[in-house]
Structure formats: structure tokens, C-alpha cells
């Protein structure tokens, strides 16, 4: 057997097989001759390293149910065969856990130790490469632990290579603060031996670097400072079998200071980034266009590969993003089933920067628009695809008129001309009576993409974010490849201002970095729009959470923000159910997809409950798989499960 096949078989077994708790903590099979070959060959050693990378999660994989989006209050995944459908109605338990990366992450963590402990044996590698590679696996180890922490809470901390005959029952879960400390330690140690960024080294893009280490640390410390983990009395009885508390119920303001400091470290690094490695918010006029266009800026930050805003991402096969695009494209050609909720539609600001609840916003709930959006420059299909004209057209429903750029870059609503698809194929998306070359999306009941089609959005909307204007699923054509982004700079700005607000709500940096996000979106400062909130911790927090909801929609942030802020089980009693701002249980709303014979059918545009969701306090954490608890008697289940 050729060497490469021996190596690949071992690595595939070590890293890719999902099995029991004892398996994922077990020492990898030791064919000593084979493993000796791994550490003598640069090619095979680097193949082993890439296998440690191979377990990086794919957050946009629709086949896993798009878990952090489909299980949040911002989207409905229509297909019941996908996991989020069961989660949203409470049909899950430790015995039927969905999206369970626990085994594969521990396999990768184990592999990181094997690599770190053996790479020095390879004399084909330079000392500098060995140092870099060891730093990379430390980063990956910390990152896999971070993903376990945010999904399950306190994990089992294994901080060394384990032996085959180890007694796994002696490994209980580790207290939350110690888990946080270890992840941050890994990020700090890795950062010391990594380059600032790989932005000027294309062949290394997607690898760990200093900026990625700092950005992950910001995410970790923000969650650790948040109410779920900072003095939460609901976890008072969350203890190991020996009585060791797994989380502190004492509030600490210092945790917010640490979170702010970690975010500011990323911001300072970005500000000092050298030429050729610039890190800043993406704007179209700083990336080839002559004039600033907020729509193209907020659209293309997700389309321009390895752009200046990406802090860390990873290369993925085209299939991941193209399958996502296919699922959110209307019929025919698309699969027509990723439906944003009315809640996220309502969250977007008006073009004047005000919320739709504000009487001064000019928002209208009903009727058809008598004028076009001020940024609708030219009524031509080519201008739609290019992004030069954006906003509502005359005759579209007023609910969608005069909204901000991020709304139009994220949401497809009934009657909107498809922003993608070639001119020649636009009529295939239209009924005979509407075949006029515009390709207006027919989400009403009898429309091509309505409730009578094979699959249909249950909300009367389709997701648009991440869709390339050159994509045409009808012809199985998709836009240029781009990386999967895990963290971008806008998130760090939001992390920073949220943390600052908790202990220093009058800090001028809150306005400074908040303004940058809104300016890129074409909006005025929140403090110009609502000057009365300035310095008011509670009011600023309300708008910060809303800004996160809009800026980071469909990126997986909303799921964790509502949980770490303890908003998921809350009942928003100040508003009727169909207009709630938060709460993951109860009625979820969209348009009336069972109504309508044409774009002019006003009965379609009625807030209608599409689902009654279940959320209980235990769902703030994912259940530990029962199979793992059965094999490790020292591990306790998460509260309530």
C-alpha cells in the first residue's frame, strides 16, 4: 500500500469518525510505523495539520438545518426533515440531540495534542514552520473548545494528550470560568507565534493568525460577561457530582471590562494594520467603485472574497454557499424555503435611521407606495443586478418602502424584482399575466413561488443575504467562490460598544464605533436620531441589541445574543404577539401566504402566525447527548434536561 493511502486512512479514522465518548477521548490507533512516516515527511505532517483544521464547523450548511439561524427568531426553514424544525417545536431531548459536534471536536482536539507533541520530529520542516504550526493547532484547540462552550456550556477540559487506557470517568465537566481562561490562554499562546495577518499571503488565507486569535478572544469574553454566565441565579445548582459549582452566581463588572478590552485590542490592531494588510469596514468606494453606495457595501462585504473586513474565515467547497443560495431562491430553479420572520423584517430601520415603531419614521403598514425609494435611480433590470438602483419601486407594499440598505440587501419580499438571475430567465419566475421581464417574486398563494408550489416560504419572505447577483440557480449557475467568514470587524465594533455600555455608558467610543457601522449602512448616527438615549445604559442597550439583530442577521449571532442576554424565554408583554421584539417561544409571524391571487391582493399583506414555537429555560443550553453521559458517569447533564 502506498504511504499516502496509509496516512490518509489513519487520519480519516482519527478525525472523521463520529462515535462514543470513550472513542473521542481515546488515543488514536497506534500503527507506529505509519505514525513515524507522518512525522518524517513534510507533506504528510502538513496533511495531518490540515486534518486538524478539517473539523471547523460549517455554519451555512443547510443540511444540518442552518442551526444558529433556523433555530433563532429570525428565520424559518420550511423543510421538516431538517433539524431546526424539530428544535423549534420542542421535539428534542438528550436521546435525540440534533447537530452534535461533541465527538468530532474532541477528536480534533486530541489530534491537536498529537501534532504538537510530534511535529518537532520532522526534520524536513524549518524551525519557524514548526513554531507556526504548533501555534496553529493551539488556536484550533481553543476554537473547538469555544464552540463547545457556547453550545453546551462548561465542557470537559482535556489539556494534554491522553493515553489509550485512561479512565474517562475521572474527567468531569470543568467550571465555566476555567473553560474561558483556558481558551483565552490558547489564543494568547498561539498569537505570540503567528503572523499579524495572512491577508498579504494568499496561499495561507484561512489559517490562524494574530487577528483571528484576538477576535475569538473577544467573542469568548463577551459571552462570559453576559447575563447568562455572569451572576445567573438559574445555574446555582449546576454542579458536578462532587458538588463543584460549574458556574459562579456572583456578578462581576470586571468581566465586562475584560470583554471591552479584548474587543478594543482587535480594533487597535485593525487601526494599525500595515499597507497591503488593511483591516477596516468594507465600503464599495474603497474597493474599486467611484462613489459610495451603502447597498453595495453591505451586500458585497459577504461576496468579495477575503475582503478587508474579514477577520477570520475558512475556505469551503462551492457546494456550501451554492446550496444555501439554491434553498433561498424562489421557484423554479430554487428551492424556495428559507423564510425570514416578520420580526427580523420589522427590525430593520427606515432610510431616515428611525425604527418603524417611531411615529416620526414615515413608516406605513398598509397600502401601495406612491413613490420610489430615494435611492431607486433608474428603473432597469441591469441596474438592479448591479446594485446601482436599490430600494422599493412604485407600487410595492408600503411596509417595504423607504427602508435602509441592509433591508434590501437581506430580504426578498412579495413583488420585488429578483436582484439576481439573468435578464433572459426572469420570466420563468413569473405567471403568464406577469411575464414582463422584471421577474417579480410571486410569494402570494397562487404565485409561481406561492403556497401552491412544491416548497414555499411559510413567512411570505425569502432570505437574500449572501446571494451573488450573478447567480442563476435555474441554470445551475452561481457567483464567484468566496470564503466562509467566521468573524468580521463589524461584530467586534458591536462587541466593544455593548461591553462599554455595561460599565461606562457615557464613553465617547460608543458613539464613535456605532456611527461607523451606521454610516456604512447609509444611516445617520443613532444619537442624532434619538439624542435622548445618550448615556442611558438601558436605552442604549435596547438599540445596540437591535443594531446587532440587523447588522449580523442570518450570520448566526442572533441565536447566541438572545441566549446570552437571557431574552429567549422572556415574554415581550408591552407589545402584541405579532409585534414582539424578542422571545423565542410562542407565535412566530410572517405574511398570509395562503392568500392572494396577484401582487395587488391586500389580504396577503396581513401579519399571520406561521408557527407556535416552544422555548423553555433548559433550551438556553444544548442538551448533553445521553450516550456520552452513559459512558462518562462523572459528566452531569445541562440544567433542565
UniProtKB/TrEMBL annotation:
GO CC annotation: cell outer membrane
Entry-linked Pfam families: SusD-like_3, SusD_RagB
Location of the RagB/SusD domain: 329-641
TM spans (from-to): none
Signal peptide: 1-23
Domain SusD-like N-terminal: 23-222
Tagged with keyword Membrane: yes
Keyword line: Cell outer membrane, Membrane, Signal
Localisation per UniProt entry: Cell outer membrane
Chief localisation class: membrane
Lineage top rank: taxon: Bacteria
Family: Belongs to the SusD family.
Designated name of the protein: RagB/SusD family nutrient uptake outer membrane protein
Lineage, opening ranks: Bacteria, Pseudomonadati, Bacteroidota, Sphingobacteriia, Sphingobacteriales
Amino acid at each position: 500500500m502506498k504511504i499516502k493511502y496509509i496516512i490518509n486512512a489513519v487520519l480519516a479514522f482519527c478525525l472523521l469518525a463520529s462515535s462514543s465518548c470513550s472513542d473521542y477521548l481515546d488515543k488514536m490507533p497506534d500503527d507506529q510505523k505509519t505514525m513515524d512516516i507522518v512525522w518524517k515527511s513534510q507533506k504528510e505532517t502538513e496533511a495531518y495539520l490540515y486534518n486538524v483544521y478539517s473539523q471547523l464547523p460549517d455554519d451555512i450548511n443547510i443540511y444540518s438545518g442552518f442551526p444558529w439561524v433556523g433555530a433563532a427568531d429570525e428565520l424559518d426553514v420550511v423543510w421538516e426533515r431538517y433539524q431546526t424544525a424539530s428544535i423549534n417545536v420542542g421535539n428534542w431531548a438528550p436521546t435525540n440531540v440534533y447537530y452534535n459536534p461533541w465527538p468530532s471536536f474532541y477528536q480534533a482536539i486530541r489530534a491537536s495534542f498529537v501534532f504538537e507533541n510530534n511535529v518537532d520530529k520532522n526534520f524536513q520542516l524549518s524551525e519557524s514552520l514548526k513554531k507556526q504550526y504548533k501555534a496553529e493547532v493551539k488556536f484550533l484547540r481553543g476554537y473547538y473548545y469555544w464552540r463547545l462552550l457556547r453550545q453546551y456550556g462548561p465542557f470537559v477540559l482535556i489539556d494534554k494528550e491522553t493515553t489509550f487506557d485512561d479512565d474517562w470517568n475521572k474527567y468531569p465537566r470543568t467550571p465555566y470560568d476555567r473553560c474561558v481562561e483556558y481558551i483565552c490562554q490558547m489564543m494568547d499562546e498561539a498569537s505570540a507565534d503567528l503572523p499579524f495577518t495572512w491577508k498579504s499571503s494568499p496561499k495561507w488565507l484561512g489559517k490562524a493568525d494574530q487577528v483571528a486569535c484576538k477576535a475569538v478572544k473577544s467573542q469568548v469574553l463577551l459571552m462570559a460577561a453576559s447575563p447568562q454566565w455572569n451572576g445567573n441565579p438559574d445555574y446555582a445548582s449546576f454542579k458536578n457530582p462532587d458538588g463543584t459549582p460549574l458556574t459562579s452566581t456572583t456578578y462581576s463588572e470586571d468581566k465586562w471590562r475584560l470583554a471591552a478590552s479584548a474587543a478594543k485590542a482587535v480594533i487597535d490592531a485593525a487601526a494599525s494594520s500595515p499597507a497591503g494588510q488593511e483591516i477596516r469596514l468594507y465600503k464599495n468606494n474603497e474597493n474599486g467603485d467611484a462613489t459610495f453606495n451603502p447597498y453595495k457595501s453591505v451586500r458585497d462585504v459577504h461576496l468579495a472574497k477575503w475582503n478587508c473586513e474579514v477577520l477570520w474565515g475558512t475556505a469551503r467547497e462551492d457546494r456550501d454557499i451554492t446550496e444555501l443560495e439554491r434553498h433561498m431562491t424562489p421557484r423554479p430553479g430554487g428551492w424556495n424555503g428559507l423564510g425570514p420572520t416578520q420580526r427580523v423584517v420589522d427590525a430593520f430601520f427606515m432610510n431616515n435611521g428611525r425604527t418603524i415603531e417611531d411615529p416620526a419614521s414615515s413608516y406605513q403598514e398598509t397600502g401601495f407606495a406612491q413613490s420610489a425609494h430615494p435611492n431607486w435611480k433608474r428603473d432597469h433590470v441591469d441596474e438592479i443586478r448591479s446594485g446601482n438602483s436599490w430600494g422599493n419601486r412604485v407600487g410595492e407594499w408600503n411596509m417595504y418602502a423607504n427602508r435602509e440598505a441592509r433591508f434590501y440587501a437581506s430580504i426578498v419580499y412579495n413583488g420585488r424584482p429578483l436582484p439576481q438571475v439573468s435578464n433572459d430567465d426572469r420570466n420563468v419566475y413569473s405567471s403568464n399575466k406577469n411575464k414582463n421581464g422584471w421577474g417579480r417574486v410571486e410569494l402570494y398563494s397562487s404565485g409561481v413561488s406561492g403556497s401552491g408550489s412544491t416548497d414555499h416560504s411559510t413567512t411570505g419572505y425569502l432570505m437574500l443575504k449572501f446571494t451573488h447577483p450573478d447567480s442563476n440557480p435555474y441554470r445551475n449557475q452561481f457567483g464567484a467562490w468566496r470564503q466562509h467568514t467566521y468573524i468580521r470587524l463589524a461584530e467586534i465594533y458591536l462587541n466593544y460598544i455593548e461591553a462599554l455600555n455595561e460599565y461606562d455608558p457615557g464613553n465617547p467610543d460608543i458613539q464613535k464605533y456605532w456611527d461607523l457601522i451606521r454610516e456604512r449602512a447609509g444611516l445617520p448616527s443613532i444619537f442624532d436620531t434619538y439624542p435622548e438615549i445618550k448615556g442611558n445604559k438601558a436605552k442604549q442597550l435596547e438599540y445596540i441589541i437591535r443594531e446587532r439583530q440587523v447588522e449580523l442577521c442570518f450570520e448566526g449571532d442572533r441565536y447566541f445574543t438572545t441566549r446570552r442576554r437571557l431574552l429567549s424565554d422572556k415574554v415581550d408583554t408591552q407589545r402584541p404577539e405579532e409585534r414582539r421584539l424578542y422571545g423565542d417561544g410562542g407565535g412566530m409571524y410572517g405574511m398570509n401566504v395562503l392568500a392572494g391571487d396577484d401582487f395587488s391582493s391586500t389580504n396577503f399583506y396581513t401579519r399571520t402566525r406561521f408557527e407556535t414555537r416552544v422555548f423553555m429555560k433548559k433550551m438556553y443550553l444544548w442538551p448533553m447527548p445521553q450516550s456520552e453521559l452513559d459512558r462518562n458517569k462523572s459528566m452531569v447533564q445541562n440544567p433542565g434536561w
